[in-house]
Design goal:
This protein is α/β, with parallel strands linked by helices. It folds into two domains: 10-94 and 416-465, Urease, subunit C, domain 1 (Roll), CATH 2.30.40; 96-406, Metal-dependent hydrolases (TIM Barrel). Helices cover 36% and strands 15% of the residues. It is built from 15 helices and 17 strands. It has a five-stranded mixed β-sheet with strand order 2-6-15-16-17, with helices on one face. Strands 10-11-12-13-14 form a five-stranded parallel β-sheet. Strands 4-3-1-5 form a four-stranded mixed β-sheet, covered by helices on one side. Helix 8 (289-300) crosses helix 11. The two termini are 34 Å apart.
């Protein structure tokens, strides 16, 4: 599959060429007993993803695919014969981790026709995520069984893009199934347990279920069924996460042993009972604020819809779809649009309350559903979390170090420390001053080298509009 050729700055191109010398193409005969030439980025502000204060005038040392040292200039030695790049004035932070996304559900990001769940389309979307600096994503329960062979292919190095985790087929309430929707719909607790055991044969990374009535338009999964799902998932040694909306359901799910909430609570303010229960077991919540904003964003023509950084990643035809009168009119005529707006505001208030109380806040977007575009929405989510009252550092930590820990990868990726994967984004401005500066993307690095990003395209688009 062809990808757009990156247009990095000359400075980063120099480092990239040096890396290409060090890492021959796949299949080439590499000399034995040869140590990879180390790469050093010096002078940048370094946000390491742990929550510690940013390091001014930093040194980041990379060898192969890993970071071998990171710290302040003078405290970290620059290895002899390393390829050194001065990135003074820039900011380096870990690549983003999206803990709630979806794969293979759309061809161009805006359509919803069936037949898109192919390895080629999934790989294209993984590359889209990566081009925006999202180096890890978790697919949340609308997967086909094909996702597990795709996961195996990625682990074998056959496909690239963002690293991904998968739930496989999720669990819905009983009802009439869409032929294109392969989620489980158990009608009894016994069926639910059997379905979980079947899912377990694929070794999912976690389980996802939906406990929601769609603002009263549908029916909710019965408690005896979701209790059986959670219990059986734990017996099969994986965690259970849930889509939820109402505070009462959140409390009931917690009592049943749920491990994480996939969305904000949006019907009313969270209370001390919920907060205490979440803290007692370390249960996390993914706000997915942008998921709720997208429900009315195109009708309101919010400013970010015109953002060149957003439009730079759109597939052909996608912008026309979301700007069409058919799309806009459908949103404006939705009888629940006022509830969407109110739900977003309640979600923001609850995020601030939960964070202030010390509840574990994760990061995700629900991107990958048609009109919820992978890549850009992760940057918009950071902005909404800060609007809700989190500091830029808190939002960044949720999207990096915290998510890595939840995925069991804290020692492998998510923070810029020795021994972690060399995957990060280089920014032209400081996101701690203004979280919107994550859009000022200079370069994306994965496995110790620059990869194609949207930065050059969006920068040129900005320039043409000025």
């Amino acid at each position: 599959m062809k990808t757009a050729k990156p247009r990095h700055s000359f400075a980063f191109l120099g480092v990239f060429l040096l890396v290409l010398v060090v890492y021959p193409r796949a299949g080439a005969q590499a000399p034995t007993q040869t140590k990879a030439r180390q790469v050093v980025l010096k002078g940048a502000r370094l946000i390491d993803g742990t929550g510690r204060p940013a390091i001014e005038n930093s040194v980041l040392v990379i060898e192969g695919k890993q970071i071998v040292a990171a710290g302040k200039a003078g405290a970290v030695s620059i290895p002899k014969d390393a390829a050194v790049e001065d990135v003074s004035g820039k900011t380096i932070m870990p690549a983003i981790i999206n803990l709630h996304g979806h794969l293979g559900l759309s061809n161009n990001g805006a359509d919803s026709a069936a037949g898109h769940y192919t390895e080629e389309n999934v790989a294209k979307q993984l590359n889209k995520y990566l081009s925006y600096g999202v180096a890890t994503m978790a697919s949340f329960g609308q997967d086909d069984d094909l996702i597990f062979s795709i996961r195996a292919d990625q682990h074998a190095g056959k496909i690239g893009g963002a690293r991904f985790f998968a739930a496989g087929r999720g669990f819905l309430e009983p009802g009439k199934a869409n032929p294109a929707d392969h989620r489980y719909r158990p009608q009894t607790a016994e069926e639910a347990r059997a379905d979980v055991r079947e899912l377990a044969t694929h070794h999912p990374d976690y389980l996802k279920m939906w406990v929601d009535d769609g603002l009263g338009h549908g029916t909710k999964m019965k408690p005896e069924i979701y209790r059986a799902i959670i219990d059986e998932a734990h017996k099969q040694h994986f965690r259970a996460f849930a889509h939820e909306y109402y505070l009462a359901d959140a409390k009931s799910l917690l009592a049943a042993g749920l491990d994480g909430f996939a969305h904000s609570i949006r019907d009313q303010a969270v209370d001390n009972e919920l907060i205490a229960a979440m803290k007692a077991r370390g249960v996390f919540l993914i706000p997915t604020l942008v998921r709720d904003e997208v429900l009315f964003a195109y009708a309101d023509n919010l400013k970010w819809v015109d953002d060149p950084f957003f439009q730079a990643g759109l597939e052909p035809g996608a912008l026309a779809i979301i700007r069409s009168s058919q799309t806009v009119d459908k949103i404006r005529q939705d009888p629940d649009i006022a509830k969407y707006r109110a739900g977003l505001e309640m979600a923001k208030k609850n995020l601030k309350a939960l964070s202030a109380a010390g509840v574990k806040i994760a990061f995700g977007t629900d991107s990958g559903i048609p009109t919820r575009f992978p890549g850009y929405l992760e940057h918009r989510e950071l902005q909404l979390m800060v609007e809700a009252g989190l500091t830029p550092m808190q939002a960044i930590v949720a999207a990096t170090g915290t998510n890595a820990e939840i995925l069991g990868g804290a020692k492998q990726f998510g923070t810029l420390q020795a021994g972690r994967a060399a995957e990060f984004i280089v920014l032209d401005a400081n996101p701690l001053d203004d979280i919107r500066n994550t859009e000022k993307l200079s370069a994306v690095w994965q496995a110790g080298k620059p990869v194609p990003s949207v930065s050059a395209k969006s920068t040129s688009t900005r320039a043409s509009r000025q």
